[in-house]
Amino acid sequence: MTQRVLILEDQPFQRGYLANLFGSRGGVQVNACEDVEAAIALCACHSYDLVVSDLLMPGQDGIQFIQALAAQPRPPRLAVASTASRRMMASARLMAESLGLEVLGVVSKPVAAADVEVLLEALAQARPSTDAAPAQAAVLPEPDARQLRQAMVDGSLTAWFQPKKSLQSGRVVAAEALVRWRHPQLGTLTAGSFLPAICRHGLEGELLRMMLEASIKAQARWRRQGFRVPVSINLPPHLLEQSDLPDELLAMTLALGGTPGELCFELMENSTTRHVSDFYAGACRLRMKGFGLAQDDFGQGLSSVHNLVNTPFTEVKIDRALVSGCARDPALHLTLATIIALANQLGLVIVAEGVESDADLAVLRQLGCSQVQGFLISQALPPEEFTCLLDDEAPRADEAAQAALR
Fold first, then answer.
1. CB–CB of 144/341 below 8 Å?
2. Strand partners, 293
3. Alpha-carbon dihedral of residues 363, 364, 365, 367, nearest 10 degrees?
4. How far is CA 32 from each of CA 12, 38, 300, rounded to the nearest angstrom?
5. Burial environment of residue 258 by CB neighbours within 10 A (0 to 12, 13 to 18, 19 or more)
6. What are the Cα distances from residue 372, in Å, to 201, 207, 250?
7. Domains defined for the chain, CATH in brackets
8. Could you tell me which InterPro entries the record lists for this protein (predicted)?
9. How far apart are CA 217 and CA 208, in angstroms?
10. Residues 34 and 7 sit within 8 Å (Cβ to Cβ)
């Protein structure tokens, strides 16, 4: 299968050099251009698998190009090759990823043949892009509050579960509950298609209760098959402004036969309380009720070391922006090492999100990360498929007998 690569580089020698490096690989077709306008025009006319862009260019620069690239309906994957500082390239990467682009790597010039091999390997391993998600987002009309509530009641809005694997045992040890909508016309929709509407209509509290109930019921099903699986549930921090929320969540958990110690609420980084006292009060009271508590998306947005140290978290989830590419980016590697060392000193379970390559997985294992989740492990699954995954991973009788003899 031929991979199409576009190179944006204003220096003629560098442009030719990069074109030769990529073009000498079998199955790679290369185009190269010297300015942003030409690159955007080519992307509009052709479907590229990868765009390799410089940052420091006269006229429109690489940052402006990335912004324009992200505005396209189906943008290609991106790599950055520049003489800019590592921190500037890391910042450009975060900007690109926040715009929805998939960044395969950042490379310092002069680019070596080995760098090109790594990028092409990452391109080969990247999960196939699908046309379904953009089409869903384009045709899904804005649901109103009545439609969303009805979907919660009739089970169309439901919880799927993404497994978390231990880096010690290699087995599934926990799961994160993620909402999906089995839409009657559009099929299964991911949260990005409808979660903004849930937020606009003020239904996050109702969604939280629905996800809690679905998680407890799934745990009961798994227990009947011999598995105890802790489940994490997303909780927008602004809901902690409701002072009796911890009491309500505990009462609901006990009434449904759940166990607080097997449930963990992930405090999302994209919202906060109007008064910081509500945040700390709610966090403390959730822990006092026996629930686990995680800082979600650590390393991005509103999350901070201050909160991590001073809130009674039991778990920290490292944002995918710090995980993806850590094997080939020294700055990301150093940042991860610092975060993991701190979290280990605090006695926290450390979960890395967005793990999508064997190389990144190896780095996380070497640095002492506890658990991982991401497409390399598994996508989110309906409860029945998650059960099959647990069955597949269960030790066979002969393995158990051998372990007993050790």
1. no
2. 265
3. 80
4. 10, 9, 34
5. buried
6. 33, 25, 28
7. 3-125 (3.40.50.2300), 136-401 (3.20.20.450)
8. CheY-like_superfamily, Cyclic-di-GMP_PDE-like, EAL_dom, EAL_sf, Sig_transdc_resp-reg_receiver
9. 14
10. no
Give exposure, 351-369, as e/b (b: 16+ Cβ within 10 Å): bbbbbbbeebbebbeebeb
Is residue 329 scored above 90 in pLDDT?
no
Q: Answer yes or no: are the C-beta atoms of 269 and 300 closer than 8 Å.
A: yes
Quote the DSSP letter at residue 75.
P
Q: With bands split at pLDDT 50, 70 and 90, how would you rate the model's confidence at 402?
A: very low
Cα–Cα dist 258/209, whole Å: 13
Q: Exposed, middle or buried: residue 221 (CB in 10 Å: 0-12, 13-18, 19+)?
A: middle
47-51, 96-100, 232-236, 385-389: segment of lowest average pLDDT = 96-100
Q: How far apart, in whole angstroms, are the C-alpha atoms of residue 87 and residue 98? A: 16
Largest CA distance in the chain: 71
The answer to whether the beta carbons of residues 373 and 389 sit under 8 Å apart is no
Torsion 315-321-322-327 (CA) sign: positive
Spatial separation of the C-alpha atoms in residues 292 and 387, rounded to whole Å: 23
CA geometry: angle 96, 63, 196, nearest 5 deg: 35
Please tell me the distance from the alpha carbon of residue 79 to that of residue 200, in angstroms, as a whole number.
Answer: 35
pLDDT (tens digit per residue) in 150-202: 999 999 999 999 999 999 999 999 999 999 999 888 889 989 889 989 999 99
Q: Which of 161, 190, 162, 10 is nearest to 82 (CA)?
A: 10
Dihedral, 120, 126, 131, 134 alpha carbons, nearest 10: -110
Q: Which helix (H) or strand (E) holds 349?
A: strand 349-352
Q: What is the DSSP string of 179-246?
A: EEEEETTTEEE-GGGTHHHHHHTT-HHHHHHHHHHHHHHHHHHHHHTT----EEEEE-GGGGGSTTHH
Ramachandran region, residue 170 (left: φ > 0; alpha: ψ -120 to 50; beta: rest)? left
Mean pLDDT of 276-300: 91
β-bridge mates for residue 235, sequence order? 267
